Amino acid sequence: TAKDYVAATWEGFIRPQFAETYDFSVESDSGIRMVINDVLIIDKWLDSAATFTGNYTFLNADMLYKFKLEWRDTTGVALCKMFWQSSSQAYGLVEQDYLHSEATNIFASPVRFVSS
What we know:
five-stranded antiparallel β-sheet; mainly beta; about 120 residues; Jelly Rolls; four-stranded antiparallel β-sheet
């Protein structure tokens, strides 16, 4: 049907709160690829529902790291949920506050972003 066989790519930056290893879990009904700072974290381009896991060590807190998530759905319910946790951060959804579309500072903003 028209709702089947879709794909999406989310590309931008991710900003961890802590400088430590994060465990990622992505719930998906089909395939997932996740890349952080050009390192392939998850590579599960499958045709079955599952929770896919991987981890990444962020060397600095509150810095922007390049991020890319590729997702595809074949048939049935389309699903993609991304979770993370670390020794200092409880397991939970990666909220939009930690995902950024670009790493440029806004003129006169009191907040400065630094990318890795």
